[in-house]
């Protein structure tokens, strides 16, 4: 089926749902994302947390709309990049022009011109560290498809997808089904969540990779969140990711998924659960996890091979470099 090009010159979407009396807004272009987006993101450097020695640190800053922000100061580095998974300090604040000040119980962070200056409020305002804005990229970004792989989408319309819609910029939109059905496979997918500062939780860049239309790997703007089962990288309602590797909205991310389908007897009784391994932005977040059942609104389990669905949850999530490598069934 021929893909239908979708033209959106402003790249700003006004969504019908209302959140706290505000119109939901979804930006899909960094250049149009507004002043708050310039502060949102990741920072890394060194901070004196205790004593005289400085240690590596990370900072994740999340925009909440209308100049409001919250952030987490992480000891050891960013998630998946040195953070110990436990030591963090919560901050909040409001942007004033070209500067953002975030405060917490122990630390105050001032951000200006892509640098974050950290001071410890328990140290009489003495400078305690400096961090620089960074944009991380997955180590599997741009991974080429193996020779034997099925290229589902590589920037042009494809007969390998059903109801594919392509943006003016050549990106795949949500709400598409693969024509190939899958049993055991390896998959690579690159995705980008929109910037939706007026929205929260499941209303913020929601989509999902529905394997066999049965098992959902959540796609969501979960940047800086706790990392639970219904956030990015989570296996919906079954298992949270080992670490929340979600990057900020409008930053391209990767999923590399290895899947072994459930096994059934000749009479249709399940004899083995499906298993899945997922790398999010190159970091293993699930390793050979045994799927106990279908997830959420997924179709019932069964012996039939089924396609993969990129869920349409009415948010403008974008996809590219989507390929599938069928593995031998043993």
Short overview:
This protein has strands at residues 4-6, 12-19, 22-27, 41-47, 55-65, 68-75, 88-96, 99-103, 107-112, 115-120, 127-134, 150-153, 161-162, 165-167, 172-173, 176-178, 185-192, 207-211, 215-219, 253-260, 263-264, 270-272, 274-280, 283-291, 309-310, 318-326. The protein has 330 residues and is an all-beta fold.
Explain what you see.
- The protein has 330 residues and is mostly beta strands.
- The chain has no helices and 26 strands.
- It has strands at 4-6, 12-19, 22-27, 41-47, 55-65, 68-75, 88-96, 99-103, 107-112, 115-120, 127-134, 150-153, 161-162, 165-167, 172-173, 176-178, 185-192, 207-211, 215-219, 253-260, 263-264, 270-272, 274-280, 283-291, 309-310, 318-326.
- The strands form six sheets. It has an eight-stranded antiparallel beta barrel. Strands 12, 15, 17, 20, 23, 24 and 26 form a seven-stranded antiparallel β-sheet that branches.
- Strand 21 and strand 22 (270-272) form a beta hairpin.
- It is elongated, with a radius of gyration of 21 Å.
């Amino acid at each position: 089926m021929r893909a239908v090009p979708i033209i959106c010159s402003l790249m700003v979407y006004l969504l019908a749902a209302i959140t706290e009396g505000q119109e939901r807004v979804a930006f899909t272009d960094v250049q149009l994302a507004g002043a708050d987006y310039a502060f949102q993101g990741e920072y890394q450097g060194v901070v004196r947390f205790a004593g005289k020695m400085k240690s590596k640190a990370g900072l994740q800053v999340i925009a909440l709309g209308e100049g409001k922000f919250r952030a987490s100061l992480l000891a050891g580095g960013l998630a998946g990049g040195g953070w110990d998974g436990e030591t963090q300090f919560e901050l909040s604040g409001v942007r004033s022009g070209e500067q953002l000040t975030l405060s917490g119980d122990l630390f105050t962070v001032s951000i200006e011109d892509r640098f974050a200056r950290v001071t410890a409020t328990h140290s009489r305002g003495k400078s305690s560290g400096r961090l620089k804005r960074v944009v991380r990229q997955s180590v599997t970004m741009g991974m080429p498809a193996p020779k034997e792989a099925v290229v589902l989408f590589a920037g042009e319309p494809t007969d390998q997808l059903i109801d594919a819609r392509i943006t003016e910029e050549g990106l795949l939109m949500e709400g598409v089904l693969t024509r190939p059905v899958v049993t055991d496979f390896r998959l690579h997918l690159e995705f980008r969540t929109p910037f939706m500062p007026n929205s929260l939780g499941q209303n913020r860049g929601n989509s999902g990779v529905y394997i066999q239309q049965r098992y959902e790997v959540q796609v969501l703007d979960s940047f800086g969140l706790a990392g639970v089962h219904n956030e990015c990288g989570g296996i919906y309602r079954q298992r949270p990711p080992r670490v929340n590797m979600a990057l900020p909205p409008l930053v391209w991310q990767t999923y590399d998924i290895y899947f072994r389908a459930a096994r059934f007897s000749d009479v249709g009784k399940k004899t083995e659960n499906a298993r899945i391994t997922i790398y999010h932005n190159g970091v293993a977040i699930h390793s050979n996890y045994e799927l106990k059942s279908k997830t959420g609104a997924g179709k019932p389990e069964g012996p039939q091979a089924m396609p993969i669905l990129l869920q349409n949850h009415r948010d403008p999530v974008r996809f590219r470099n989507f390929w599938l490598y069928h593995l031998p069934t043993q």
